[in-house]
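W.,

You were right to be curious about this one. When I first looked at the sequence I had no strong expectations either way, so I just let the prediction run and decided to look at it fresh. Below is the sequence, 56 residues in total, followed by the output.
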Amino acid sequence: FTWVLRRVLTPEPTQPGCMQRNPDEHPDLMKLEVVEIENLKSAGPLKVILLKDVEG
């Protein structure tokens, strides 16, 4: 199954010549939220291509 995640807080890029962000902000900037869990949906039609005869 697949989880689709997105950042809770999206950081603005540091402008050239400016100081970088305080490292204490790092945990907040790494938080993610679940947008969608794909195993709850039906898989839909499957297409199978046989590369070898499987009889017998």
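Here's what jumped out at me. The chain has a mean pLDDT of 80. And, maybe more interesting for your project: Strands lie at 3-7, 32-37.

Coffee later to discuss?

I.
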